[in-house]
C-alpha cells in the first residue's frame, strides 16, 4: 500500500485528487493539507511514502515544504503537482530534492503511474515537464547550453560504463527492480550502482541525476 499525504490550497483540487487516488486499491490518502506547513506536520505524524504537493500555496509553499520534508523525513519522497505556468518553480523543487513532477492537468493514469514509480524507488518526470525543464535549461542560449553540456559530460565521464548505463535507465524513470530486469542483474546490485552514481555526480536524488543525464546527452526527455 502506498500511503500519501496530499497538499493543495484548493479544496476542489484536493477532492479531485483524492477521488483519483482512492480509486486505486493500492493507494491510501492518509492526510490532506491546505498549505505547506500543515503538510510537513502531517508527514511528521503519518510518515507516508509520498507527499504530493502543490507548488503555490499560501504561507509555506510547496518549495519550502519540499526542502523540509526531504531533509527531515528521508523516508518520505516528494512529488510536485505543477502547471505550465510554473516553470520557474521547477528548479527550486529540483534543488529541494523532489523525486517527481506531474501536471495537474495531466491524465489521471499518469499521476498514478508517477506515484508508483516514485514509491518503487524511482523518479518520475511528466513528459511535458521534462521537455519544459530542458527548454528552461537551454534558455540562456547556445553558449550556455554548450557550457552546461560540457560540464555535465565531464561529470558523467567519471562514471564507469555500467554506472553510465544505470544512469541512462534512471533518467527513463525506471525503478531499481525494472533496471535489474533490464540489465539482468540483482536489484541489490542496482541499488549499489545508483548510490554510487548519485555520490559521484554530487546530486541529491534520481531526478537531479536524470536532468544531468539529459544535459550530458546520455538520454532524451520522454
UniProtKB/TrEMBL annotation:
UniProt GO MF annotations: DNA binding
4-aspartylphosphate sites (modified residues): 54
SMART domains xref list: HTH_LUXR, REC
Presence of the UniProt keyword Protein transport in the record: no
SUPFAM superfamilies noted in UniProt: C-terminal effector domain of the bipartite response regulators, CheY-like
Gene3D superfamilies listed in its UniProt record: 3.40.50.2300
Transcription as UniProt keyword: yes
Residues in the signal sequence: none
Location of the Response regulatory domain: 3-119
InterPro entries membership: CheY-like_superfamily, NreC/VraR/RcsB-like_REC, Sig_transdc_resp-reg_C-effctor, Sig_transdc_resp-reg_receiver, Tscrpt_reg_LuxR_C, WalR-like
Any Pfam family the entry gives: GerE
Residues covered by the HTH luxR-type domain: 152-217
Domain of life of the source: Bacteria
Keywords: DNA-binding, Phosphoprotein, Transcription, Transcription regulation
GO biological process, one term: phosphorelay signal transduction system
PANTHER family on file: TRANSCRIPTIONAL REGULATORY PROTEIN NARL-RELATED, TWO-COMPONENT RESPONSE REGULATOR
Protein's name in the database: LuxR family two component transcriptional regulator
Organism the protein comes from: Actinorugispora endophytica
Amino acid at each position: 500500500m502506498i500511503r500519501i499525504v496530499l497538499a493543495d490550497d484548493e479544496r476542489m483540487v484536493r477532492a479531485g485528487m483524492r477521488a483519483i487516488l482512492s480509486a486505486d486499491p493500492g493507494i491510501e490518502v492518509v492526510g490532506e493539507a491546505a498549505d505547506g506547513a500543515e503538510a510537513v506536520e502531517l508527514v511528521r505524524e503519518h510518515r507516508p511514502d509520498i507527499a504530493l504537493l502543490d507548488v503555490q500555496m499560501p504561507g509555506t509553499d510547496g518549495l519550502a515544504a519540499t526542502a523540509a520534508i526531504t531533509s527531515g523525513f528521508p523516508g518520505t519522497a516528494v512529488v510536485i503537482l505543477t502547471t505550465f505556468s510554473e516553470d520557474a518553480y521547477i528548479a527550486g523543487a529540483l534543488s529541494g530534492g523532489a523525486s517527481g513532477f506531474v501536471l495537474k492537468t495531466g491524465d489521471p493514469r499518469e499521476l498514478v503511474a508517477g506515484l508508483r514509480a516514485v514509491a518503487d524507488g524511482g523518479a518520475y518526470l511528466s513528459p511535458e515537464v521534462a521537455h519544459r525543464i530542458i527548454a528552461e535549461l537551454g534558455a540562456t542560449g547556445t553558449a550556455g547550453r554548450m557550457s552546461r553540456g560540457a560540464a555535465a559530460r565531464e561529470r558523467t565521464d567519471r562514471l564507469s560504463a555500467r554506472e553510465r548505463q544505470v544512469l541512462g535507465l534512471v533518467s527513463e524513470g525506471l525503478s531499481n527492480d525494472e533496471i535489474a530486469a533490464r540489465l539482468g542483474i540483482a536489484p541489490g546490485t542496482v541499488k549499489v550502482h545508483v548510490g554510487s552514481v548519485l555520490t559521484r555526480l554530487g546530486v541529491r536524488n534520481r531526478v537531479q541525476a536524470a536532468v544531468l543525464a539529459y544535459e550530458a546527452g546520455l538520454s532524451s526527455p520522454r
